[in-house]
């Protein structure tokens, strides 16, 4: 079985490594601080940077057979195909839901140097194709009557 294609900003893994390095430096240097407040403060900031590093490196939008897996900084969820109306991409990819809501996918963002055919356009095209394929494969409610 092949792994589904993962879409993410190509700079996020680099940012994750940089945040991780910052977190490690802060944690290693924390015991050298004077006073418990400084040690706990620097250690806490270092730990927070490490946690953000892991989450940033894992940001992604992944089309799966069940729906679209969205990994944002603070939550991960799967949006089932039958709840998705479509996708929109102005600056950040949004999944438009049939009930009128949206799910923002921070892993796919157009930057100031966006070029046609870049990763954001490829991600949007692939997600739209997957949605169209799901709609074609899924039986319509009218066919059940």
Low-confidence stretches: none
Strand content: 15-25%
Helical residue percent band? 40-55%
Q: Which secondary-structure class do the elements indicate?
A: alpha+beta
Largest sheet features: 3 strands, antiparallel
| The first-level CATH class name of the largest domain | Mainly Beta
Q: Which CATH architecture of the largest domain would you pick?
A: Roll
Pattern of helices and strands = HHEEEEEEH
Number of helices: 3
Question: How does this structure look, described?
Answer:
This protein is an alpha+beta fold and 145 residues long. The protein folds into two domains: 12-57; 60-138, PH-domain like (Roll), CATH 2.30.29. The chain is built from three helices and six strands, in the order H-H-E-E-E-E-E-E-H. The strands form two sheets. It has a three-stranded antiparallel beta sheet with strand order 1-2-3, with no helix packed on it. A three-stranded antiparallel beta sheet has the order 4-5-6, covered by helices on one side. Strand 2 (67-71) and strand 3 (76-80) form a beta hairpin. The protein starts with 11 loop residues before the first helix and ends in an 8-residue tail after the last helix. The model has no long low-confidence stretch (mean pLDDT 81).
